[in-house]
Amino acid sequence: MNMTCFKAYDIRGRIGETLDGDIARRIGAAFAHVMIDTSAPLQRVVVGHDCRESSPALSAALIEGLRGQGADVLDLGLAGTEEVYFATAHLGAAGGIEVTASHNPQDYNGMKLVGPGSRPIDPATELVAIRTAAQAGDLPVAGRKGTCESVSVREAYAACICDFVDARALRPMRIVVNAGNGTAGPAFDAIAAELRRRGAPLTFVRINHEPDGRFPNGVPNPLLPENRAMTAEPVIAQWAELGVAWDGDFDRCFLFDETGAFVDGEYVVSLLAESFLAGETGAAIVHDPRIVWNTRSAIARHGGRAITSRTGHAFMKARMREVNAIYGGEMSAHHYFRDFSYCDSGMIPWLKVVESLSRTGRSLGQAVGKMRAEFPSSGEINFTVVDPAATIAAIVAQLGPQAREIDALDGASLEFADWRMNLRASNTEPLLRLNVETRGNRVLLEERVGNLSELINRLSVN
């Protein structure tokens, strides 16, 4: 069986075609076989699932596969990806698996995998071994069948999230929160209750709050421009200081300023870098290579060390562990924290931004206004092409001679005197992704985006 649902660092597939109950069972068995010494005591695996309609059945099949190979399962039930990360480290488990397809279309699902301490699975070794074992399907019979126990760590998780800020130092704010009918609602409620207990003077306006795997308002992906109005409009109508929206498994969060304007991810990275460097001058900050000029400027200005990593949670986490970075951020709204087992969280970022705004007295619009002017960017533009690698090579061949720097860490980054671009294939979807930035020149930005889009479309056909 050739399992095409295995991607660069996690699992994604279309239900009934490339991912089903049998495949999930095989993956569970393979994970236990590769990652766990079932002869040792307390070799437990944490499992959680998002609210997609297909997730409970896939989770049950996954658990059956794990137990069949002798692993004991700690089942969180409905939980976000970061709750699985937290529980894996908090409970001392040997690994963790979240059943989720995050922001992919409704007919998709998948899994995110971590090892002990919630460290990332190595894509080149461990993930390959799991795939090989799952495809073979002829694993040795375990000496015992593992157990399954339903557990909850939500109160401890909420306390951990709230420990990232001084709740009593927060100023009164009215905040719109949009769970998108994804999995965020119950976890957010636990955090809001803990903040209230600690004396935080925050008022929340909840919209699309109840988990609903039918996604009546569309699959929660606030990165898409067409999905932003459902958060932006309530921010304006409610006279809120900011808006927060999450994707389906809420390991990413997206911010809207007091005017309802969407705040691009690289500016949030800069705000969070500033916040963490205020407490630890000279610390390492890891960032992805897609949009970098504003991020590097902010890190240097606040006395940090900027370190670039390949895009993707497994690569970002591994790089952060190598350099002991206090924080890592991607423009796609993944944010990673040393004191959260180097894992990504969709709840810590908005809390840290609220703390920063409270400390400085700025509005969110004021905090990012100068960055928007000095380093405008295109946002991520997606192209469907037959051969992403060939298209990237053709672009580099055509534009490379004029570039003053070419970086192949992740796709191709070409830097010129007053503009820069990154072109890379998606790790999880059959797409080519373009990002462009300039130094204070929005007219040039629009011109380069238009020219590059035309060139990509032409070269991808040829």
Structure commentary:
- It is globular and about 65 Å long.
- It has 14 helices and 21 strands.
- The model has no long low-confidence stretch (mean pLDDT 95).
- By secondary structure, the protein is α/β, with parallel strands linked by helices.
Helices and strands in order, then pairings?
Layout: E1 11-14, H1 21-35, E2 44-49, H2 55-68, E3 72-78, H3 81-90, E4 95-99, E5 108-114, H4 126-136, E6 148-150, H5 154-162, E7 173-178, H6 184-197, E8 202-207, H7 229-237, E9 242-246, E10 253-256, E11 262-263, H8 265-279, E12 284-287, H9 293-301, E13 305-308, H10 313-323, E14 327-329, E15 335-337, E16 343-344, H11 348-360, H12 364-374, E17 381-383, H13 388-399, E18 405-407, E19 412-415, E20 419-425, E21 432-438, H14 442-461
Parallel strand pairs: 2-3, 2-4, 3-6, 7-8, 7-9, 12-13, 12-14
Antiparallel strand pairs: 1-5, 4-5, 9-10, 10-11, 14-15, 15-16, 17-21, 18-19, 19-20, 20-21
Helix pairs in contact: 1-2, 1-4, 5-6, 8-9, 8-11, 13-14
Brief digest:
This protein is of the alpha/beta class and 462 residues long.
Query: Which of globular, elongated, flat, extended, rod-shaped describes the shape?
Result: globular
Give the tally of structural domains.
4
Mean pLDDT: 95
Within CATH, the superfamily of the largest domain carries the name Alpha-D-Glucose-1,6-Bisphosphate, subunit A, domain 3
- CATH topology of the largest domain: the name is Alpha-D-Glucose-1,6-Bisphosphate, Chain A, domain 3
CATH class of the largest domain: Alpha Beta
